[in-house]
Amino acid sequence: MNIKKNDTVIVLSGKSKGKKGKVITAMPKENKVIVEGVNVATCHVKARKQTDVSGIIKREIPIRVDKVQLYCSNCKKGVRVGFNVDGDKKVRVCKKCGKEI
Q: Which of 94, 75, 76, 74 has the alpha carbon at shortest distance from 84?
């Protein structure tokens, strides 16, 4: 999985198509990511303690990783990811412009 936490991604399909957001959580075993402001669901929360507040909240739910693409700030669009080796480090780069992501 090429997408990691704190990456900026763009959604390719679904009701949130075209939206950009930051990855909050990456779940490589399930092949899913949670993106800020994308795929938002309303959840009814019940108060478990007397001090808790009950009500309706909006929460981001996971989206499949094949429906998002890494966003290149230089190209201003979603791009594929390549890898370069700098010394002993493996670095992700944009396939279009070659800039490090």
A: 94
